[in-house]
Specification:
Elements lengths: L2 H12 L6 E4 L8 E7 L2 E7 L15 H7 L1 H4 L7 H12 L9
Antiparallel strand pairs: 1-2, 2-3
Length: 103
């Protein structure tokens, strides 16, 4: 088992998915890859985003010349390796009615 798979296994174990079936999913236009974890009636999505393989994300105020110089992620305004962007989207989706409990 390589170092990345060891970390993945530790995360799966800590989340209660150590014995889950891992089903590969289609990749997006990035270096990320995805797997569906299935354990009984529980499922989760595992996103593997190896650090350092993508360009930095685009600053919000970057002009087109700057984005072009920064590469594909900046040109297309992708999240790049910013996993927190995916966490933010997941939190937003989890809080959509009827799932969201308003304070």
């Amino acid at each position: 088992m390589n170092a990345l798979e060891s970390v993945i296994f530790a995360v799966m174990r800590d989340a209660g998915f150590a014995d889950a079936q891992r089903i590969p999913l289609a990749q997006d236009a990035s270096t990320r890859s995805y797997e569906r974890l299935k354990l009984g009636d529980r499922t989760a999505i595992l996103m593997k985003a190896p650090p350092g393989l993508e360009n930095a994300p685009c600053p919000p105020d970057a002009d087109s010349g700057t984005r072009h110089a920064m590469g594909w992620n900046a040109l297309s305004r992708l999240a790049a390796g910013r996993v927190e962007a995916f966490v933010g989207v997941a939190e937003h989706l989890l809080c959509m009615p009827p799932r969201c409990r308003q304070p």
